[in-house]
Amino acid sequence: MNEFELIRCLTRTLPTNESVVVGAGDDCAVLETGAKDRLLLFKTDAVVEGIHFTNETPPEKIGHKALARCLSDIAAMAGTPAAALITLGLPRDFDAAFVEAIYAGMSALARRHNVAIVGGETTTNPERVLISVAMIGFAPRGRFLLRSGAKAGDAIFVTGELGGSLAGKHLEFEPRLAEALWLAENFHVHAMMDISDGLAGDLRQLLKTSGVGAELHKSAIPISRAAKLAAKAGDSAKPAFVAALTDGEDFELLFTVASKDAVPLLDAWKKQFPKLRLSCIGKIIAGEGVTIRDKTGVRPLTAHGYVHFA
Fold it and tell me: Is 235 a residue whose pLDDT tops 80?
């Protein structure tokens, strides 16, 4: 049983109540608070030594990554983060200075985004460090974004460049909070999520929840310099293009808009975010599945993203 099969199994019969606007299945849960102008976003995520970082990773970067993953999910809903709780699982022989440096990394990022760290929990976790972050944020009523709104004919966009995150980006990425808010305020975005498990995997999640398919243009996929260098040097078993589709931990935004908005969006983006690349990588189509178009024609995309327990 892989990660997604387990999630489907566990979420089939989850209890709910009148406060739930959107439950399990999107980047964040959306909850009713009674406020006239906004809804509550609720998210949790975890990083584990040996999976998301090593014992040689600088502790400040571990803390940055732990908090930034939740911030990226808040961004995917076009929300504004507010507060976080931190749970630490530590070996009995933990180094106090190391843990304090983890918190320094989290705190530096939190201050940049006006996020309060309001407490949490500590526990023993044999052999390795585990950090779990629970975060709340807010989104304007009627303007939060989901994965489920993509429509046939939409243009598909990604921010930044993809692949090669193990060269350092996965520890240093900046959540696209400002970019997501700008998109929601200025364009009618139909569906959005962040790319954490690779474009090939996460796009399929967006398509499945929207009930549509996609055609990607190979030449339009923005491949990172790190992925290209790793492939050229033989440091990666994957060609750079496959790395861009499957490496994961890019934490860029993946979203769709009506095709008529594609050119105006690209023009406005260049003025608003001149240092961050925005790429139109394909289109939403009726049906299901993902195809890839290149010089030889169109064929099914066989690559998949990262899956826990695969």
Answer: no
pLDDT in tens, 61-86: 999 999 999 999 999 999 999 999 99
Q: Which two tokens stand for residue 132?
A: 């779990």
Contact 192, 254 (CB under 8 A): yes
| Distance of alpha carbon 295 from alpha carbon 4, whole angstroms | 33
pTM of this prediction exceeds 0.85: yes
Percent of the residues in the chain that have a pLDDT greater than 70, as a whole number: 99
Residue whose C-alpha is closest to residue 221's, from 174, 266, 254: 254
Residue 98 has pLDDT above 90, yes or no: yes
Decide: 81 and 113 in contact? Cβ < 8 Å.
yes
Q: Are 276 and 161 within 8 A, CB to CB?
A: no
What is the SS3 assignment for 45-78? EEEEECCCECCCCCHHHHHHHHHHHHHHHHHHCC
Provide the sign of the torsion angle of the four alpha carbons 265, 174, 87, 108, taken in this order.
negative
Q: Which of 130, 113, 114, 254 is nearest to 175 (CA)?
A: 113
d(CA 102, CA 131): 10
Residue predicted with more confidence, 310 or 218: 218
Residue whose C-alpha is closest to residue 103's, from 53, 66, 54? 66
CB 146 within 8 A of CB 73: no
Q: What is the pLDDT of residues 161-219, one digit of tens each?
A: 999 999 999 999 999 999 999 999 999 999 999 999 999 999 999 999 999 999 999 99
Edge-first strand order for the sheet with 116-124 is 20-22, 29-31, 38-48, 130-140, 80-90, 116-124
- Residue 299, pLDDT above cutoff 70: yes
